[in-house]
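Could you help me review a protein record that somebody else here produced? This is what I was given.
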Amino acid sequence: MAAGSYVADADKSGALVVHPIWRGHWAVLCALVVVAFIGGKVLESKLTKLADFPAMLSDARVVEDMDHVQSAGVSDLTWTPRSSAAKKTIYVVNVFWSGQQNQEEAFAKQVASRILENNPHVADRDRLRIVIIRGYDLGIAHAQRSDPFEDSPANWKAKLQPVAK
């Protein structure tokens, strides 16, 4: 109908009779649109309470703007270890990086610096993990190596301070 075409039986002849769409279908369609809109708003409010998606997206963009970064992803994880009842939080930044080999740790420090500057809420997490991922994908073969660098946000900040002489 959207294209203005119809399917007709080929074994009949005569004028094409087009029947109007039953009004009940329009009512059902409108109800589905309203339910989808309201459901989307409810889901959005619940997800926003779980994580600060705009800040996470901003963090990913900040990292992706760095030299030799192919892509970046951010996760904000919460779990309860078996050994304690207290919840733990970790902010994870996965970076697909094509920079100079053996410079992963220095680059991880640059990423941590940018994240801590861009998102002050990361300092409230128990851990900040920067994962530098290198590799290739040729279609018929692929390889990947990841180097995780993890510490508390306070320790990251201490590592990033210039050394006084």
User: Anything to note?
Assistant: The two ends are 77 Å apart (CA to CA). Residues 52-160 form a domain with the GMP Synthetase; Chain A, domain 3 fold (CATH 3.30.300). The helical segments are 23-50, 53-64, 104-118, 153-160. The first strand starts at residue 69 and ends at 79.
